[in-house]
Amino acid sequence: MEDYGVQPMDDASPPKWHLAHTSWFFETFLLKPFLPGYRPFDERFEYLFNSYYNGVGNPYPRPRRGMLSRPTVATVFEYRRHVDEAMTRLLERVGDAEVAARTELGLHHEQQHQELLLTDIKYNLGTNPLLPAYRDDLRDRYAEAGGSGRDRRRFEFAGGIVEIGAAAGAGAGAAAGADGFCFDNEQPRHEVLLRPFALDDSPITNAEFLAFIEDGGYRRPELWLSDAWAQIAGLPPLDGGDRDPSAQRRAGPLYWYRRDGEWYQYRLSGPASLDPDAPVAHVSFYEADAYARWAGARLPTEAEWEHAAAGVPVAGHFADGEALHPLPAPPADPLGTAPLRQMFGDVWEWTASPYGAYPGYRPLPGTLGEYNGKFMSNQLVLRGGSCVTQPGHVRHTYRNFFYPGDQWQFSGFRLAHDR
After folding, report:
1. How far, CA to CA in Å, does 321 sit from each of 90, 200, 357, 374, 382?
2. Is 242 exposed, middle or buried (0-12, 13-18, 19+ CB in 10 A)?
3. Distance CA 228, CA 116 (A)
4. 364 CB-near residues (< 8 Å, 6+ apart)
5. For the chain, how are helix, strand and coil distributed in percent, rounded to 5?
């Protein structure tokens, strides 16, 4: 129970808050407007567990969520039971298309918070000097993976006019693609012009990123965007002596540290030796971009990424793999005909594309329009899902987005090349 109320940084939330907020979503957008006679569990929760919906009211300040010792964890679970029971009554009585669409949106919203729970818990435990494990029973599947990025290939694409985005389908109250659910920011499907390009068939690995560090990558201003260099110029290097990842922020991937001459990283299973063949994770867009310049390459645009992924099955190493950490890539097809590897799962992949509206985009009507549209500023798009994403949650068209300096998500990257 000790971990439920901890908020390790302003961008994270306590586990207790995630549990309450996902219940708040169903209560606010389904039970109150659609279930006759519904009585809220506690009227004050509308303020406490609102995330950013100003159309509902002024939310409780995000940086102060960890200061709430009340309601207790037990009360939050009572709140969830109250909402679950009321949702069962609603779905039994109401066959409304709007109710069905909002319920589906709420389920996908909860899946997003299941992932955020794990990333926030990792930041809490991984910046604790004791470096405690989240779970002691996580299966170590690294020996089973049997691959690496060292057999990497490049796949070439002719470019031209291509379509990206989710195709329109029937839906009410929440976006629906022709092939099923999608968020509103994935629409409308539209044409883009791509120049010929090539894409690596696997993400950059820990060993490759370590080579960047050892070549002075964090000390070379010509590799970095101006905003990035201003943030890292005064940071000490990761290899400046024995340390642990709970120490003051240093230049390098989050959770990396060196002890007795060996490299380690914190995982949700606890401290472990750095696996050279696993995809590098917990790097910011700034770090991914600097590495790409160092390697004489670039990051793909989101249109290039989606076009390349179009023929790849949405399958990979997700949260159900029970490692909760990126695994090495499976071996490459010796004939070079297999699909691109690790496009889905393992690490979210940074793209070079700013998060903005597609041509013709319209947010959802009403307060639900705040779900995605209001964040289309100063963020970059990531694609593909990660090792803590719920299976079945992502699609070829799924657009995640974070600020360029963010590291605490399971974020990595692969390289693109001009032809």
Report:
1. 34, 24, 33, 34, 21
2. exposed
3. 25
4. 173, 174, 175, 184, 371
5. 35, 15, 50
pLDDT, one tens digit per residue, over 57-108 is 999 999 999 999 999 999 999 999 999 999 999 999 877 899 999 999 999 9
Q: CA-CA distance, 63 to 77, in Å (whole number)? A: 23
Instruction: Round to whole Å and give the CA distance between 349 and 340.
Output: 13
Looking at the DSSP assignment, which residues form a beta bridge with residue 61? Answer: none
Backbone angles phi, psi at 209, to 5 degrees: -70, -35
315/157 Cα distance (integer angstroms): 22
124 neighbors 3 (Cβ within 8 angstroms): yes
Mean pLDDT, contiguous 10-residue spans, the chain (419 residues): 88 95 97 96 95 91 92 97 97 89 96 97 94 85 57 92 86 53 96 98 97 95 95 75 58 91 93 95 98 98 97 94 93 74 97 97 89 92 98 96 96 97
Among 183, 159, 129, 179, smallest CA distance to 363 is for: 183
Return d(Cα 76, Cα 4) in angstroms, integer.
11
pTM for the full model?
Answer: 0.93
- What is the H or E stretch that residue 18 is in? helix 15-26
- Angle, vertex CA 82, rays to CA 64 and CA 52, nearest 5: 35
Residue-range domain boundaries for the chain = 15-126, 142-200+283-418
Q: Cα separations (Å) of 6 from 12, 54, 64, 246?
A: 9, 25, 11, 15
CATH superfamily for 142-200+283-418 is paralog of FGE (formylglycine-generating enzyme) (3.90.1580.10)
